[in-house]
């Protein structure tokens, strides 16, 4: 802006000078010397403008460097100094870096310290006293500069949403998945430099997920699911049983549509609540339970070891509960709000099969497009919620669906051999752990 104003002023005076010079050249009176003297004023002003512009450019470069350096050093020492001490240090650092015109024109910087966002913003203005430019009305030139730096590291919340269905028993897939998951945990643990900097949840899924039965009194559960059994003997009487807290083994089915594809605080109404349900062949009670976000690496390792391949596939409920573990509201409250400064949320969604059954559709054995449609919506909602979604297809499954579920093409992985799982999980873990560094 300073350069534009200076050049504009130069052009104006140049135009005036040429007009005066034309008049001077055609004048034959005795006032020639006086007119020539007057004509030299804008000439000297133009020369002064060029000199002052060069001085201002040098001064701006020096001020920029001083501001940038002071902001970086302030971020380095932010955790050790009070706000008052930081402001004093910043001004001292800037003054120590300036000399000549810049030192004379600088008084004090404006410093904004955001300890929640862990940022320091520094801005300063220095005044350059003009030289011959004063002949054309420019007494001083204002030079401004600003910079921002940050300190600390990002925090990470990661949901491992892992297919635990019966097909994972074949081709060594479950064994490979356990080994790959442990490799991932090791990388994430080693990347942690602060308490709770990286927290991980585990969501094993089949057609349902299983929770610890200690949640039976939670107000976000509903107790209206039933099962009907009929005798094999004539007249084939049937009995309908409704789930109860005393018979519940921890299985939870899909919520009512459209809550089934959303993260939401359960309870309040029956539709938003999570249906406590009977476990069955499609989701046996032996399935590993959901583990909320934690930085307890031993507990995470133990839960990975408990995973067992049983049941049929409903990727939707896995994605929905992955979101639930990454949300600060019920059913889990371990997560922080997405608006928390320097917080990044991730989900790794892995499956080896097609969707075959949810609470509304499917027979548990053949691919069902209606269930696919629910999964696609769940993945879209996860991305809208600010969660970066990685997807891994293990040999089988709906390729197009999983590609669409991934946040971008680079976050979709396809495994043709179970042995490839560990290198892929290591790659993903390295990418995610690198985000912990300030960016």
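Q: What amino acid sequence fits the structure above?
A:
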């Amino acid at each position: 802006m300073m350069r534009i104003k200076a050049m504009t002023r130069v052009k104006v005076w140049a135009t005036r000078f040429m007009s005066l010079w034309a008049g001077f050249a055609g004048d034959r009176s005795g006032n020639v010397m006086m007119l020539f003297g007057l004509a030299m004023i804008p000439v000297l002003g133009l020369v002064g403008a060029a000199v002052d512009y060069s001085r201002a450019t040098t001064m701006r470069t020096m001020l920029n460097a001083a501001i940038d350096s002071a902001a970086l050093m302030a971020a380095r020492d932010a955790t050790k100094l009070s706000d008052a001490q930081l402001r004093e240090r910043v001004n001292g650092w800037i003054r120590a870096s300036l000399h000549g015109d810049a030192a004379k024109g600088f008084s004090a910087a404006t410093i904004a310290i955001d300890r929640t966002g862990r940022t320091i913003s520094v801005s300063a203005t220095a005044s350059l006293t003009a030289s011959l430019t004063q002949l054309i009305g420019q007494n001083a030139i204002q030079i401004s500069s600003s910079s921002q730096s940050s300190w600390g590291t990002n925090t990470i919340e990661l949901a491992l949403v892992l297919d635990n269905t019966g097909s994972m028993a074949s081709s060594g897939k479950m064994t490979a998945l356990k080994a790959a998951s442990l490799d991932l945990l090791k990388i994430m643990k080693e990347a942690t430099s602060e308490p709770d900097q990286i927290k991980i949840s585990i969501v094993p899924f089949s057609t349902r997920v299983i929770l610890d039965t200690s949640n039976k009194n939670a107000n976000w559960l509903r107790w209206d699911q039933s099962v009907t059994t009929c005798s094999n003997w004539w007249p084939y009487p049937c009995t309908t049983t409704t789930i109860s807290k005393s018979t519940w083994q921890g299985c939870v089915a899909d919520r009512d549509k459209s809550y089934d594809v959303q993260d939401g605080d359960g309870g309040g109404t029956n539709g938003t609540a999570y249906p406590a349900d009977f476990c069955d062949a499609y989701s046996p009670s032996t399935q590993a339970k959901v583990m909320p976000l934690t930085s307890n690496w031993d507990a995470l390792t133990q839960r990975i070891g408990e995973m067992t391949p049983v049941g049929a596939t409903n990727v939707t409920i896995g994605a929905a509960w992955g979101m639930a573990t990454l949300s600060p509201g019920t059913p889990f409250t371990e997560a922080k709000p997405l608006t928390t400064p320097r917080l990044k949320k991730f989900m790794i969604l892995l499956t080896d099969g097609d969707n075959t059954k949810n609470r509304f559709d499917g027979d548990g054995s053949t691919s069902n497009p209606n269930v696919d449609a629910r999964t696609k919506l769940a993945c879209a909602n996860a991305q809208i919620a600010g969660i970066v979604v990685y997807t891994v297809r293990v040999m089988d499954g709906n390729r197009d669906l999983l590609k669409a579920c991934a946040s971008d093409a680079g976050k979709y992985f396809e495994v043709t051999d179970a042995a490839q799982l560990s290198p892929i999980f290591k790659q993903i873990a390295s990418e995610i752990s690198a985000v912990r560094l300030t960016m």
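Q: And what stands out in the fold?
A: Residues 2-150 form one domain.
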